[in-house]
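Ticket 4471: requesting a sanity check on a complex prediction with guanosine-5'-monophosphate. Repro inputs:
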Amino acid sequence: MMVSDVKSPGHLIVLVGPAGVGKSTISRKLAEKMHLKYIVSATTRKRTPKDAEGKIYEFLEPEAFFKKLENGEFLEYASVWDEYYGTPKHPTLDYLRAGEDVLLEIDVQGALQVRFQYPDALMIFVMPPDEQALLQRLRERGRDTEESIQKRFRGAKREIWMAKGSRAFDDMIFNDDINRAVEEISRLIRQKKSPGGI
Ligand code: 5GP
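Returned structure tokens:
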């Protein structure tokens, strides 16, 4: 059965944006404010000390990840910087069927898969205020060498081009101020939940 065959009363909200744009902070505030179920992704990447402050993952060995993939346990998955990331179908679909709104924080390749499977998803791309601000945030994260910062910077620009070029996103929100960005995304969610409402 295709995921789109499932008529679910809950709304699927997908947040995408380049590394260093502040997605995790926005997701956390948004999930709290709008009572969204936050989905924990699986990844093959190793845990880093920064993970305590960022996005929460289920860390898996590659064998375990691929076993889940073969068993059809992922709604979408992608390879990012030579590591694999995937959204579990459960509990995502269970929440949606139960009428809960769900938030996914994923990369652009995964978002395009979701768009095909779940056309009614609200997909939002978070943009950095400008390129210099993005570069500065990548540096401030302090977990990379200059070479890898430049690699991530090029990757971030590629993601922005893909997001713009695909036209798969409902909106692009600039994160020049976290609270304003959260407020703007909340407004889009409210609009999605009650079109024509105020
Ligand atoms: P990081 O390793 O820095 O936490 O994440 C790297 C990238 O992988 C980010 O763009 C993040 O949004 C993305 N990502 C995290 N979880 C998932 C997932 O479940 N699916 C996909 N497609 N991307 C993910």
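Notes from triage: Residues 19, 41, 45, 55, 76, 78, 80, 85-87, 105-107, 109-110 surround guanosine-5'-monophosphate (CB under 6 Å). Leaving this open until the requester confirms.
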